[in-house]
Each structure stands twice: as C-alpha cells, then as structure tokens.
Design brief:
The structure holds two protein chains of two kinds. Chain A is an alpha/beta fold. Chain A is built from eleven helices and 19 strands. In chain A, the strands form four sheets. In chain A, strands 5-6-4-14-15-16-13-17 form an eight-stranded mixed beta sheet, with helices on both faces. Chain A has a six-stranded mixed beta sheet with strand order 8-2-1-12-19-18, sandwiched between helices. Chain A has a three-stranded antiparallel beta sheet with strand order 9-10-11, with no helix packed on it. In chain A, helix 1 links the parallel strand 1 and strand 2. The chains are: A alpha/beta, B mainly alpha.
C-alpha cells in the first residue's frame, strides 16, 4: 500500500469507484481507495439494481438523467470488457390515492421540463405494459420507458478496473481506522494495514459514512436503516418494467438474468447498522406481490438479504466539501438511490475536488443546507 | 481433472471459469459469487461451495479455516412466493 497519496477515498462501492475513475481520468492519478471488505460489498451490491429518472426534486432528476445518459454508454466510456447488463424496460409507478396522482402529475411536469420523457398512464395503459398487473384500485401510473436496470456488481467493477488501469490503487480488505487532523487540516489516514499521508479524503462509506464523520469530529446528519430485499429463481422474461408503489411500499423488477428482485421499506425499522433478516419481511412482501402481480406467486423465492440506506433529512444526498475541515469531501446520504445517480456524482465530485468547472452545480446538496433550513424533501422514495 | 466439468449446476459454471476467476484476484467465496454467480442460484451454494473452496485452497494456498463462509439467509430451501404470502402466524398449523 502507498504511504502517501494526493487523494484517499474511503469506500469501495459504486460511488467511491466512480469518483476514483473520474479523478484519474481528469489527471489526478495519485489516488488510493480503501474498502474494508470487497468491492460492492455494502449498499451498492445489496441494492435493487434499478435506475430511474422519475424523481420529485430538480437535483435528483438532473443527477438521474445525466447518470442514465452515462449508463447508456458506460461500457464504451470505461472500455469495459464485461457487460453492465443495462435493460431499459421502464419504471411503472402505481398510484392508488388521489394525493399520489396529484404528486405524480407535479413530478411529471418537473421531469418533462428537465427533458425526462415521463408520462401519466391510465390503468388500462399500464396493463398493456404489464399484462399481469392487477389493476384493482389503481387510479393511474407514472411511466418512463427509458428507466430501467443495470448490474451493480458489474458497474462497480467497470469503474474500478478503469480506475486501476489509470493508476489508482485499490485496497480491498483494508479498513479505515482513523483520520488525523492537525491545525484544522487533514494529514493522515490510518488503516489496519498502515497509514497514508494525504491532504484530501473522500467519505464514500455509504451505510457507514456516519462513522467516518465521527473520525474527523463531524456529526453528519445521516443515519442508516436496514432495507430488506428478496430474489426468485430465474424464469423466461415476462415483465418489462420495474413496478413500484409508494402506497403498498414495494418495488419489483425482472432482471436480465431472469430472476425477480423485490423489496420494501419498513416504517418501523429502527435506525442502525443491522443487516440481518426477518421472516416478517418475507411474508409481508409476498402478500403484496401476490396481490398486485399475481403470477409471481408461482415463482420460488431463493434468497432474501438486506442492506443499508444512508438517509438524510430530505432524502437527497450530501455531496460537498466540509466547510469546517478543508480537504474532507463527502458523497453520502443517498437515501436508497445512490447506485442510479453514481455516474454523475462521481464526475461532479471529481471536478469539485480538482477545482474544475462543474458539469452541474451541486450547491443545493451541500452539508450546510440542514443548518440553514433549506431542505428540499424528495417525495418519491420507497 | 477436466476443466469443462460443471461446478455450479444452478448457473452452469465450469471448473475452468472458477479457476480463472480466482486467478484474476477474487479469492473469497463472496467475491467469486458476485462475478460468476455461483451460489446465487436455487441451491444457494449448497452444491458448489465446497468445490469452490478446494479450488481457492489449491490456487492461493489458503487454509480452509481462513476461507469465510458467505452469510446464510432464508429461506433454507426455495419456497413458492404464494406459499410465503399465505403463511400467517394467526393460522393454526394442521
């Protein structure tokens, strides 16, 4: 492991690897990435693998749209020999309450104004896209055909390999233990395999970003929360879009490999770093899916697992430099949608660190917004 | 041993593919699983794990006790989603 580096990135998920690649591709190649387990072992590799642009805030919409454009060309951009398994089968978001219909209309107006081609469908139109959808009680659905899926393991690997080929050092099974600050400036990162002298650190630790904040004495306004998920055996393709419902609180998609991946949020889930599993989840989610997408009842569930959402008070990420500690950057608090906006996050954060013109202003996503009371709540989160 | 032998029956992964993945640097069961999918199928690694373990030991020289076992998760064996939906703790078991 290097003893000194221009930039040290903490976290080998999709965000950490994307920042590493972008720094290197912009000329900053003296970069070390630390990952306490293996690449994509945290939230990235545990996520629902969906990528959508149908968001309710300007920042999420912009980040998601730009990221989708990058996903569409990622294999070429990164000269990846594998496949990221991009499937643009759309996202169908179901509305069961008048309030939801109103919110979706508002979201679609915003999305359209930003160039995202989403539309409101009738239940009949929704059924044309998902013929096995039970439309009982359904009022409308928001749909964007260009949303879809990519494989989080492959995307992370693609970024990591591209970063390594440009000279970035990636250290897996290497845990960041402390960050040394002298006279208000970062001097050193301590790991369980030795120390690295540096002036710039990026906190991309996902569900554990609060612990990295503690190391520099920053109480970050984020918390982690377990979200569970399950997968069926692979079958021939019969569901094109990701189907999600905020009312029932679930998402469900068929990935290119053939498996169905589905998950739900639990309003009673306690805060913390627990990534265990519960039988209640299996039962509750199965009931919802069996009701809304009945033929899925005949599929066999092979596994359930869980991962951490890293949540901010407004469900939008924090991407900035800490004002209190020059050189301490963070891309955290993605609130369950970090994978899908990682490509653009990685690019803009690298530009920010290198003092370049930003491809997209991210001042609305700074850490100070919570103290200033300038929260911009994202209404559309499962 | 023939490299074309299938090690992971669920995902059709050959011994040669497993060995190549280990040689490329993935030396834990969890990493190998996330690259070539062995252990993600209906058997959840119950068939292939031991064999992959032996390949890791053979190529890296690791001892068996140093090879971490991936997290065990429910269900123990695959179940129909409709059956999971029907199960209810208020129902009496027959």
């Amino acid at each position: 492991m290097k003893k000194q580096a221009e930039v040290v990135i903490i976290g080998g998920g999709v965000v950490g690897c994307a920042v590493a690649y972008n720094l290197a591709s912009m000329g900053c190649k003296d970069v070390v990435l630390l990952e306490k387990n293996y690449l994509s072992s945290g939230a990235t590799g545990r996520c629902g693998a969906g990528i959508r642009q149908q968001w309710g805030t300007e920042m999420n919409c912009k980040l998601a749209k730009a990221s989708m454009e990058m996903f569409e060309n990622l294999e070429q951009i990164l000269a990846y020999e594998g496949e990221i398994e991009l499937k643009q089968g759309g996202y169908l978001i179901l509305a069961y309450k008048e309030q939801e219909v109103k919110q979706f209309q508002k979201n679609i107006e915003l999305q359209n104004s930003l160039g995202i081609e989403s539309e409101l469908l009738t239940p009949e139109e929704a059924k044309e896209i998902v013929p096995h959808l039970n439309t009982k009680g359904l009022l409308a659905a928001s749909y964007c055909a260009r949303d879809g899926h990519a494989n989080p393991f492959e995307v992370t690997r693609a970024y990591a390999q591209a970063a390594q080929s440009l000279g970035v050092e990636i250290n897996t099974f290497t845990e960041c233990k402390d960050i040394i600050i002298e006279k208000g400036k970062i001097t050193e990162v301590v790991t369980d395999k030795g120390s690295i002298k540096t002036k710039t650190v990026i906190n991309a630790a996902g569900g554990y970003s609060d612990l990295i904040g503690d190391m520099v004495g920053l109480k970050l306004p984020v918390y982690s929360e377990r979200h569970q998920i399950m997968v069926t055996e692979p079958v021939n393709s019969f569901q094109t879009p990701m189907v999600i419902s905020f009312y029932y609180n679930f998402y469900c998609q068929q990935v290119p490999h053939g498996s169905f991946i589905m998950g739900q949020g639990d309003p009673n889930e306690p805060k913390g770093h627990n990534i265990g599993h519960s039988w209640q989840f299996l039962q509750e989610l199965s009931k919802k899916i069996n009701h809304v997408l009945p033929p899925l009842g005949q599929l066999r569930i092979v596994r359930q697992w869980s991962g951490l959402y890293n949540i901010t008070p407004d469900a939008q990420p924090i991407i900035c430099q800490a004002e209190e500690i020059p050189g301490f950057y963070m891309a955290i608090g993605f609130s369950g949608h970090g994978f899908m906006i990682a490509p653009m996050t990685g690019k803009v954060l690298a530009e920010m660190i290198l003092g370049k013109n930003l491809s997209m202003p991210l001042d609305k996503l700074d850490l100070g917004r919570f103290d200033r009371g300038e929260l911009i709540p994202e209404p559309s989160v499962v | 041993m023939d490299d074309k032998i299938i090690i992971c029956f669920c995902e059709d992964i050959t011994r040669a593919e497993v060995r190549q993945t280990i040689k490329n640097g993935a030396t834990t069961l969890d990493e190998i699983k996330r690259i070539i999918r062995c252990g993600m199928g209906p058997c959840q690694g119950k068939t292939c794990e031991e064999m992959i373990c032996r390949e890791i030991m053979d190529i890296t020289g690791k001892k068996k006790e140093d090879i971490l076992i991936p997290t065990r998760r429910p269900p123990t064996s695959s179940i129909l989603l409709a059956d999971a939906a029907r199960s209810d703790n208020n129902e009496k078991t027959s």
